[in-house]
Write a structure and sequence with these properties.
By secondary structure, this protein is of the alpha+beta class. The protein has 8 helices and 24 strands.
Length: 377
């Protein structure tokens, strides 16, 4: 018979969402235990690599609001960590005019600065890039430091009193009426709330526990390209960018774009795109970089990014966990809070999502949940 431990909150997954949630809950005085199936700094999930794009620039105004909510919380997290976790070096959207106009409109409606330019004027200013049809620039965007944020949040959570058990997969969650029992590492952990922040493993973990929307796991394969010395981007470096292409087969998914880029200072510019996203099994240990997919990125860089050397410096794979409409799952059912599936665009919101997890987990009566499971079915 395994032994039972009792805590206020159990968290499955100590990646970006789970670690920042653990910090917030522990610093407010709750006893918190978190589990991760892998060792610290692993590259098997969704949060490894140097950077992610931070942007307020979304076509859907709800994400503009959520990113605005995240901004002061990023500063709070960075201050607590004593590290730079977010840099607002600017964000460019270009491509399909309707998509760029929607982004610009949503930013303007939120009272944010946005410059709309034609491609020739944009190429004058950002000589390392070619631009497609319409361009919008927002200075609030930029990059978050990804692995650094996860490591800092894990450290802060432990400093605040949380236990994190690495290399300890949660085998099973049992739901009783007013509590959950988490089975991990040969022990049972009983808690009034369990937060499922298991990224690509969320669907399998929730199976038979709570009804969740359909989740699709895919792998993206971004590559880093070195900037040419005369790349034409000036002293301020590369803003982050999204290239909005035309809808695929007539389907205009709300977040559709062809390619994205973000500078990893000291290394180059990470470029990824939806030609390099393929279905994936998170338990497949043999996942490797596919040279044929990297070739799509090399072609893209040759066509659109003359300021980069098209020989990749490095390439990696990373998992997306998506709903069918690219929105998030952030909700509570009984003792189970689900926060992780963020459809490949969640990192920028991590501190705001963790704040919402804290409210959901502690039963606050302020209903500020942004997306409920029902709403994304
Ligand atoms: C290539 C790529 C580019 C991206 N670019 C951007 C971007 O530019 N901007 C942006 O905002 N977002 C971006 N994203 C999305 C963002 O990175 C993710 O939304 C975010 O990292 C997800 O964090 P998470 O905590 O949900 O997942 P993870 O960090 O993967 O954490 C889940 C954790 O759960 C653990 N786990 C799973 N099952 C169990 C179990 N049974 N027991 C114990 N532990 C378990 C895993 O080991 C893992 O550590 C990108 C994602 C990818 C892959």
């Amino acid at each position: 018979m395994s032994r039972s431990e009792h805590v206020d909150v159990a968290i499955v997954g100590a990646g970006a969402m789970g670690a920042v949630s653990a910090w917030r809950l522990a610093r407010s005085g709750r006893s918190v235990v978190a589990f991760d199936r892998f060792a610290p700094g692993h590259d098997r999930g969704s949060s490894h690599g140097a950077t992610r794009i931070f942007r307020l620039a979304y076509r859907d105004p709800r994400y503009v609001t959520l990113a605005e909510r995240a901004l002061p919380l990023w500063h709070e997290l960075a201050d607590a960590a004593g590290e730079v976790l977010l840099e607002q070096v600017g964000q460019l959207d270009h491509g399909r005019p309707e998509a760029v106009a929607e982004v610009a409109g949503a930013l303007r409606a939120a009272g944010r600065s946005v410059e709309e330019l034609d491609p020739a004027a944009a190429s004058e200013r950002w000589g390392g890039m070619r631009f497609d049809r319409a361009v919008a620039y927002n200075p609030d965007g930029g990059r978050c430091w990804a692995e650094r944020t996860v490591a800092a949040a894990q450290r802060l959570a432990v400093d605040a009193g949380a236990q994190i058990h690495f290399s300890t997969p949660v085998d099973r969650i049992e739901v009783r009426s007013d509590r959950a029992v988490v089975h991990a590492g040969g022990s049972r952990w009983v808690a009034p709330v369990v937060v499922v922040a298991a990224g690509a493993w969320t669907g399998s973990l929730l199976d038979g526990v709570v009804a969740a929307p359909e989740l699709l796991v895919t792998a993206d394969q971004p590559a880093v390209f070195a900037a040419r010395p005369d790349c034409g981007m000036g002293d301020s470096g590369w803003p982050s960018f999204l290239h909005h292409g035309d809808p695929i087969a007539g389907v205009d998914r709300p977040l559709h774009f062809d390619a994205y880029g973000v500078e990893n200072p000291g290394e180059g510019v990470k470029v990824g795109g939806f030609n390099t996203v393929v279905p994936a099994d998170p338990d497949d240990d043999s996942r490797r970089v596919d040279p044929a997919l990297t070739r799509h990125l090399v072609d893209y860089v040759q066509q659109w990014l003359p300021g980069l050397d098209p020989s990749p410096v490095s390439a990696t794979t990373c998992l997306f966990t998506s709903t069918t409409d690219d929105h998030f799952v952030l909700d509570r059912r009984g003792p189970v809070v689900v926060c992780s599936p963020c459809s490949g665009h969640g990192f920028k919101f991590v501190p705001a999502i963790a704040a919402e997890v804290e409210r959901l987990a502690t039963g606050s009566d302020q209903p500020v949940t942004v997306w409920r499971i029902d709403a994304v079915r």
